[in-house]
Amino acid sequence: MNSKFFFTTAAFSLMAMSSVFAQEPAKAAAAKPAHDHASHAGKPHVEKSTMTFEKASKVISYNEGINLGQRLSEAKEMDSAEFLKGIQAGVEGKKNTLYAEPVIMEAMNVMRTEMQKRQAADAAKFAEEQKGLSSTAKKDAFGDKAVVKTASGMEYVVLAAGAGENPKATDTVSVHYTGKLLNGTVFDSSVQRGTPVEFPLNGVIPGWTEGVQLMKPGAKYVFYIPSNLAYGPNGQGPIPANADLIFEVELLKIVK
């Protein structure tokens, strides 16, 4: 987790807390009673809270503080005591006299450099893990089927051949698919959702654009897609950076 995350999260939480204080009176004034007792008193009965504004302020403040703390709990680089001192000083309207601007900029640069080193180390470790998993993952995915390797480096096997014409890159297709990491983790599956997906072939990862054009409607393939033909060094959601992926894809139809 990087330093930008803590500062962004902290700012967001504090803004959210300010919003709660600003909106709460308006919400209370507009709130409808949970039960309509008009038949008893001639008008709706509104339960009045005995909580004071000062007590409400304490409750909301503590709740927002604990929410922020939980969101920052993974930020091992953070000095929580210094962070709280900074918040307290800001709440009291004080300026930062503890650290001059050049010192802050230097600290940010040191933090950024260190985080980049850690990310590079994590990426190298992940790449080694991928190498170790690759052969096993291919064996599990491909079974005893004949494997075809394309010029781009993608590999695939044919589970069902299908019939008809192949889609072009400019076509929209309807497919069912299941995507896995090399360790077997399913990160996405239209099969599990029970709903096929339609998309233009030139609007997806290169491995899909290339691979689905090899298929005919009714075909089912398993693709081993190297990271440079998938999401590369950036990753995507649950897909880590530089992850090779395995997809089982069934081409249902070309959408005309």
From TrEMBL:
Q: Check the record and name the Pfam families matching this protein.
A: FKBP_C (PF00254), FKBP_N (PF01346)
The chain positions of domain PPIase FKBP-type read: 170-255
Q: Which family does it belong to?
A: Belongs to the FKBP-type PPIase family.
Q: What class of enzyme is it?
A: isomerase
What EC number(s) is this enzyme filed under?
5.2.1.8
The residues forming the signal peptide are 1-22
Q: State if ATP-binding is listed as a keyword.
A: no
Reaction(s) catalysed (UniProt annotation): [protein]-peptidylproline (omega=180) = [protein]-peptidylproline (omega=0)
GO MF, one term, reads: isomerase activity
PROSITE patterns from the UniProt entry:
FKBP_PPIASE
Keywords (A to Z) from UniProt:
Isomerase, Rotamase, Signal
Instruction: Cite the residue spans of the region called Disordered.
Output: 31-50
- Residue ranges annotated as compositionally biased, kind Basic and acidic residues, are 33-48
- InterPro entries, alphabetized: PPIase_dom_sf (IPR046357), PPIase_FKBP_dom (IPR001179), PPIase_FKBP_N (IPR000774), PPIase_FKBP_N_sf (IPR036944)
User: Which protein is depicted?
Assistant: Peptidyl-prolyl cis-trans isomerase
